[in-house]
Amino acid sequence: MVADSSREHAGRGWQFVTNHTQVLLCIANDPDIRLRDIADAVGITLGSAQRILADLVQAGYVKRERRGRRNRYVIDRDTPMLRHAAQKGHDIGGLLELLRPEGHG
């Protein structure tokens, strides 16, 4: 069994879930979320959040809708996960459903 401090140290430097997925999860939980709040929740800079969101929009995973002075983000849950052959036949909605926090949905 690994001691708690060793387990914490061992987990530093990499993550199971990428920042792109973390941004998608933030949007899935709150489509009206501000970019600043996404950055804070994921633990990245505002610039990184903007770049990740631009990647997700360009790839077709997210659509940006202007609502007055704010943006609303809509995830196309049917978009296939085509970044790797191992995900062939799976869509983003399935991933978001799997990673959805307890008590949501």
Quick take:
This protein has helices at residues 4-10, 19-29, 35-42, 46-58, 92-99, and strands at 62-67, 70-75.
Describe this structure in words.
With 105 residues, the protein is of the alpha+beta class. It has a single domain, classed as Winged helix-like DNA-binding domain superfamily/Winged helix DNA-binding domain (Arc Repressor Mutant, subunit A). It has five helices and two strands; from the N terminus they run H-H-H-H-E-E-H. A two-stranded antiparallel sheet has the order 1-2. Helix 2 (19-29) crosses helix 3.
Describe the secondary-structure layout:
Blueprint: H1 4-10, H2 19-29, H3 35-42, H4 46-58, E1 62-67, E2 70-75, H5 92-99
Antiparallel strand pairs: 1-2
Helix pairs in contact: 2-3, 2-4, 3-4
